[in-house]
Amino acid sequence: MRSLVVRLDSFGDVLLAGPAVRAVAAHSTHVTLLCGPRGADAARLLPGVDEVLVWEAPWEGFDPPPVRPADIDALLGRLRAGAHDSALVLTSFHQSPLPTALLLRLAGIGRIGADSTDHPGRLLDVRHRRLPGRHEAEAALDTAAAMGFTPPPNDDGRLRVLPPPDTGGLTGYGPYVVLHPGASAPARAWSPDRCAEAVALLADAGHRVVVTGGPGERDLTRRVSGDVAVDLGGRTSPRTLAGVLRLADVVISANTGPAHLAAAVGTPVVSLFAPVVPAERWAPYGVPVILLGDQSAPCADTRALTCPVPGHPCLDEVTGQDVVRAVHKLIQERPS
C-alpha cells in the first residue's frame, strides 16, 4: 500500500509527527510525506519516509501565500502521480484538516483520515476526535491508529531521527551543554541578556557550553556566547545540529524546533516554555524535561507571536541560576 502523510507546518511539528509516520510505514510499501517549506528539513530526517513533497499551503504559517489556481493544480497533479491508496492528515489541536482533505479527495485518494472537530461531510473516511490533554505526538499516533496504522510492537513511540553524523570537529571533544537562544516567535524566546547570563554561569560552574542558531541568528549567538562558549551560529545543517544535540549532556531551549530535535536524539531538555501554547501538548516529548517559565501567566493559551505582557515576565523572571540548577539536576539524574 502506498500511503501519504500530511503535516504542513513547522520543523518541530513535523518531528512530533514522526512516531505516527513510523506507524504508517509499518503497514505500507511506500510513504510520502507532504509538508510545508518550514518542515521540509525535518521531514528528511524522519525514519520511514521514502519521499518528501513540499508545498506551501495558503492556510498555514505566519505569512501564507495567496491562493493560486496554478499552484493547486500542480499539487493535484503531483498527488495523482503518487497513486496513494490512503492519506493521514495530521494537524494541531487548533487547525482544521478539511482544506487539505478536500484537495486529497480531488486528487483521487481513496481513503482519508484525520482528527476533525468540524463535521467533515464526505471529505474524510475516518474522522478521529482527539482525547483531552493528549500531547501532540500522542494525538498524531492516536489518529494513525484510528486509520489502522498501529505502531509495531518494538516501537516505543518516542521521537526519532535518522542517525546523525559525528560532530566532534564542530564542538570539540569532552562533555558539553548546548544553549539554543533563538525561537520561532518572539513570545517564546528567553531574552539575549538572560541567555548570556546563563552561558557565563554555566562556564563558571565548569561546563563547556555550545551555543547553536540558524544562519539568521549569528548576531544573537555571538552576543550570547561572549568569549566563553563555542559559537555554532549558522554553522550547522539540521543533520549536523542533530549530531551536536545528541552528544550534549543537556540542551537548554525555548519551545522551538531544536527542543524537539533534542528529544528526538534522546537528550534531556531544560525547556524555557512560554505558556502561549499548552506545555502538556508541546513540551519536549519522551525525554527528561525540566520546565521553566510561569505557566499561569496572563499570556497563557493566547498563541501570541509577540508577548502581550510588558516585560515578558513568564520567561524573563527565570534567571541564569535557575537554568544552572536545572542543568545540574538533569545531569545528576541521567543514567550513566
Automatic annotation (TrEMBL):
Please identify the protein, giving its name as recorded: Glycosyltransferase family 9 protein
Q: Which UniProt keywords apply?
A: Glycosyltransferase, Transferase
InterPro entries associated with the record: Glyco_trans_9, LPS_LOS_Heptosyltrfase
SUPFAM superfamilies per UniProt: UDP-Glycosyltransferase/glycogen phosphorylase
Gene3D superfamilies from the xrefs?
Glycogen Phosphorylase B
Annotated source species:
Streptomyces achromogenes
Q: Does the keyword RNA-binding apply?
A: no
